[in-house]
């Protein structure tokens, strides 16, 4: 067993619609450096590095693909791009299962929830079966996604593991595709989803915790009490512009408020955990220029997202922070085993 001083490695992923591509590009940059010098058969994937991955909305879907489905990062990115295109490409109409034309964007301005469900299920089927449960009692990487209960607007965490401090009512019922659908059910774009025998309804967790950094720290403390933590938090860029034509001003203002709150959460957590910062145990990466005009659903702006993220990653200050982050990760991985997965060094 490794030293008690070795910190847990935790990955926190913000929400942000199609701008989740930026999250994946940042993570690819980090993992590429970590894998330098390794042979192809010993290269690490995120599920082998991080004990826990938590995410909201876009970040939640990515967390499940990387941590629960244990997809290769490259495959996850390809699936994510395909997912975004199939959901957010505007079409005049499409044929439903009964052969009737159906508008892709509904009269109330929302995108078709069935298209989202179909796309998510296809991703799950590439790895296993459509009915796979989110729960995985002895999984090598613990995963949670953030949703919000429609009835009372309270946050709800859907987990692949049991949290000893909570009721875990949906643990034995929630399917992987349902968890993805729940965390990404932004009320601006998609209808809520019902899960479980009680028919509980959930919407996108972004309205409460678009940046889940506080939650991942809390969850890790519940599962591994007293352990030191290393947290890598990745955002999806600065505040969005208009989501799409025809939306109400209140919705636009709401999205901007979410983006503002996301960075306030990051800043508050930073100030509240100065010791982590000083010991290189807390890192936040978030593109601060070039994404503000891109709405959450604008798939056509993928190239702009990639350009802005690449410029950000090559910026001097970002490079300095990347070096410190990767160095701390590499040092911690070196204390683990099983091709570097630190979680194998702890009893869970």
Task: Walk me through the structure.
The chain has 348 residues and is an alpha/beta fold. It has a single domain (8-88, 111-338), classed as Cytosolic phospholipase A2 catalytic domain. It has twelve helices and ten strands. It has helices at residues 20-34, 46-49, 58-68, 73-88, 113-125, 176-183, 206-209, 213-223, 249-272, 274-278, 302-313, 316-333, and strands at residues 8-13, 52-56, 94-95, 101-102, 142-149, 155-159, 193-195, 200-204, 229-234, 282-285. Helix 1 (20-34) packs antiparallel against helix 4. Residues 90-109, 240-255 and 343-348 have low confidence and may be disordered. Keywords: Hydrolase, Lipid degradation, Lipid metabolism.
Q: What does this entry show, briefly?
A:
A motif (DGA/G) lies at residues 204-206. The chain has one domain: Cytosolic phospholipase A2 catalytic domain.
Q: What is the N-to-C succession of helices and strands?
A: EHHEHHEEHEEHEEHHEHHEHH
User: Over all CA atoms, what is the radius of gyration?
Assistant: 19 Å
Instruction: Write down the CATH topology.
Output: Cytosolic phospholipase A2 catalytic domain
Tell me the number of helical segments per DSSP (H or I, 4 or more residues long). 12
Give the number of DSSP strands: 10
How many domains? The number is 1
Biggest β-sheet, characterized? 8 strands, mixed
Tell me roughly what share of residues is in helical segments. 40-55%
GO molecular function: calcium-independent phospholipase A2 activity
Active site: 57 (nucleophile), 204 (proton acceptor)
Keywords: Hydrolase, Lipid degradation, Lipid metabolism
Protein name: FabD/lysophospholipase-like protein
